[in-house]
Amino acid sequence: MSSSANQRQEALRLAERRSNLEAELEVHLELLQSHGVTLNSALVDREGFPRADVDISAILEARARIRVIRNDLKTIEGNLARLLQDVFQTSGDDAQVYLNGSASTPDPFALVKSVDAGSPAASAGLHEGDKIIRFAATGPHPVPAESLQAVGALVQKSLDKPLRVQLLRRHATDDRDVMKLLQLTPTRWSGRGTLGCFLVPI
């Protein structure tokens, strides 16, 4: 099995582990919410006695587990970010790996303001609000485009050739970004340009 395939398998394994942890995290957060408390809410009354209106034992257990899960997720996210970077640079496959943004995530340079229906960008899965980290040609050792000017030049010479797009997308259920890798092929279509999306600098 190739190094790229091994990286893909490891990334998918970590992504699955991350999804399982996120599901468990949601359960514990919902438990806290059902008791009307947060990670930092006091569990004693004004006189210093344990509150009788909540299940203190369950809350303490949930809080402890939430902290462990968040630490585990932070480690997984860092490993996934590094793996995604390797896959992005070396893989020619149509890979899609969802990752959480972290301190090691490169800064995005462009925001997707709009995506035209039926366009190459829409077909590739690009969404309004996505934050672009880089464009690059497929194949070994691509030179990434990390500015709007560089993207324009790359797209112009890549008609009908797949490009890999690394981006951040806001998670659907919480206030976090996830990193995603898409394959987008500039193509002449019935609408404007060869991508069918409007990017603005960040």
Automatic annotation (TrEMBL):
This protein's record includes keyword Chaperone: yes
CC annotations in GO: cytoplasm; nucleus
Start and end residues of each Nas2 N-terminal domain: 13-89
GO biological process, alphabetically ordered: proteasome regulatory particle assembly
Coiled coil: none
Pfam families hit by this protein: Nas2_N
UniProt KW keywords: Chaperone
Protein name, UniProt field: Probable 26S proteasome regulatory subunit p27
UniProt organism field: Mixia osmundae (strain CBS 9802 / IAM 14324 / JCM 22182 / KY 12970)
Gene: Mo03717
